[in-house]
Every structure is written in C-alpha cells, then in structure tokens.
Amino acid sequence: MGRLYLIQLDGRVYSCRCCRSHLAQCDELVSKSFHCRHGKAYLFNTVVNVSLGPQEDRLMTTGKHTVADICCNSCQQVVGWKYESAYEKSQKYKEGKFILERGLLCRCSNTL
C-alpha cells in the first residue's frame, strides 16, 4: 500500500474530530438543518479526504434515498454519507451532496 496523501484546504474548514484531517471548506456548507442518528448533521456540496462505501437504499425521514457511507481517509472513521439518488422529486437537490455528522467534526481556521 502506498503513502497516504491528504488534501489540505485553505481558510476556514471542517475537520475530522478524531484525526483533524480536513474534510470540507466552510464555503461548501449548504445547510445546517439536517439530522442523523447521533444528532445534528450538515449538508455540503463537496468534501475531500473521504472514501465511499457501498451504495444502499435507506428510508429516511424525507423518504427513500440511495446513499453511500463516507469514511475519513486518515483514521477510517465513518463521518457521514453521500446522497447518490433520491426517489422523491422534492429531494433531488440532495443528489451528489454529502452529509457530515456534526458530532464527528471540528471547525478550525487554516492558512497555508
């Protein structure tokens, strides 16, 4: 296995609480009004330093979605999921976006 390469983001970022790897820039935050099993969650346009798990259908409070869990590339902690597809027309805006669980994040400023 090769050496781990992690992307370092500039400016204000959300990081993995366990290992502090950068996950998303604050500018990519779409909404803070999401919930997960463990509390609050945030919707992001893009995230970095994560790997996708297998896709599965899940019945959520907003309907049925096809999602894939996302894990931090550095510590392998599951930090949220990616919306692959939505079955309801009103939920299509979530497709291709990412949920990060608030309890698994920390926010920091980073200037390179």
Number of strands: 9
* Number of alpha- plus pi-helical segments: 0
CA-based shape: globular
* Largest sheet, strands/sense/barrel: 6 strands, antiparallel
The portion of residues forming beta strands comes to: over 45%
Question: Which CATH architecture of the domain at 31-104?
Answer: Beta Complex
By CATH, the superfamily of the domain at 31-104 comes out as Peptide methionine sulfoxide reductase
Give the N-to-C terminal Cα separation: 28 Å
Q: H/E order of the elements?
A: EEEEEEEEE
Q: What is the CATH topology classification name of the domain at 31-104?
A: Metal Binding Protein, Guanine Nucleotide Exchange Factor, Chain A
Strand order of the largest sheet: 3-4-8-7-6-5
Q: Tell me, rounded to a whole number, the average pLDDT.
A: 92
Q: What is the radius of gyration computed over CA atoms, rounded to a whole number of angstroms? A: 14 Å
Describe the structure concisely.
This protein is mainly beta. The chain has strands at 11-16, 22-25, 29-36, 39-44, 50-60, 63-72, 78-86, 98-101, 105-110. The protein has a domain at 31-104: Metal Binding Protein, Guanine Nucleotide Exchange Factor, Chain A (Beta Complex), CATH 2.170.150.
What does this structure look like?
The protein is 0% helix and 57% strand. The mean pLDDT is 92. It starts with 10 loop residues before the first strand and ends with a strand. It has a domain at 31-104: Metal Binding Protein, Guanine Nucleotide Exchange Factor, Chain A (Beta Complex). It has no helices and nine strands. It is globular and about 40 Å long. Strands 3-4-8-7-6-5 form a six-stranded antiparallel sheet, with no helix packed on it. A three-stranded antiparallel sheet has the order 2-1-9, with no helix packed on it.
